[in-house]
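Protocol step 4 of 5: obtain the predicted structure for the target chain.
Materials: sequence only (see below). No template structures provided, no constraints applied. The aim of this step is simply to have a reference model before the mutagenesis design in step 5. Sequence pasted as it appears in the construct record:
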Amino acid sequence: MKKFSIILLLTVLGLSALLISSCSKPTVPNFEELGEIGVPASVWEYEHTVWFDINYVDMDKGSANVNIWMSAKGENPNATLKIVNKNIVFDTVLSYTHGKIYYGGDYELLNMDQPVAYEIVSGGKTYTGNITLDTWPQMVNVPTWPEFHQDTNYSPSWTISADPKFHIIEAGAYGAETVMTVIRQIPGTEKTFTLDQTHWSKIKPIEEFSFGINAVGYEMMNKNKVLITGISHNYYYWSQYELKTSHQTQRNPLRFMDQIQADMDK
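Step 4 output (structure tokens):
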């Protein structure tokens, strides 16, 4: 059985066989280094960037389980992060030329219906603030994922209670020992997308397929020294070997950093 992790790994690292953007100036990930994770150079534009990978649990209470990543710029940054009153513990810290990446943090049942306080301490400096409600992208709801058929276009529709800054469509297919990946940025006002079957027509028969809808939000804090980002997502997976599934998966939020930077620079 072919492992669909091949597609996911290539998507995370930005090493796609095909990268397409709907913007007039396509944003191609600029990876400074490739280690255990790929880090876009735009990460180091800020003293700190904090990413929240959001998995909503109870929308009535506004609660979500979040995976948290953080960057710290500098030669020897030893940073700590507190969310509300919880000290975030990171599983792994990776060192790069311009700083460190802290990842594997989490916060269960974070109340996102109210401003979220944070505190970053690094190199003798302290950054504090309250993340506003508008920063958080809301839950991406797909009433029914269409069944994937390799000879037809794939066209899901979704709902979301508030428009995010933008959406990123992230799709992949595997066939004929070849991986195909498509990434497109679309406005937050759009709630449907059609992926033409010609993208995978040359690698049929398709063995595995994925389609992801990512809602992206961000906010500049502390005089533009801290960037807060949030990603809410919904993914569809299809395999000729297994039943189709729809579930949330922890993914590398760094892969969208260049699109976020390009959106801020408009």
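Step 4 remarks: Residues 1-36 have pLDDT under 50 and may be disordered. Residues 5-264 form one domain.
Proceed to step 5.
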